[in-house]
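Q: Sequence in, structure out?
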Amino acid sequence: MTIEALGIIDRLLTDAGINYEYYEWTSDLAYPYWVGEYQEVEPLNEDGMSESAFIMSGFTRGTALELEQDKEKIKKLFDETSGKLVTTDSGSVVAIFYTNALPVRNENMDLKSMTVNLKVKEWKGAKL
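A: Exactly. Output:
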């Protein structure tokens, strides 16, 4: 996954009012908050397309409904059928799609969490 794609995800989530940081939360705690990481998928073709699974983990000490509300914002932002398509400054194209979510039960019942999964596809390009 490219730094450009990570930046796009960061900007879109922040603009949507979702507390998000890549990899780990480093700011003052503001619940609910989300952290993201990715896993690259081995390419099957030589067409210049790369794919990654982007995993967002959300946490709150409020109600689980807060996470469900953020999930709905994320689902709308990265619609599962049309997704979010962005052409980068370098000429690459990034497509981001919502795939699914999973509420996660914690031993610490005060802390609620959820995982939201996105699919990210990138096509390398050259700026003309």
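The chain has a mean pLDDT of 91.
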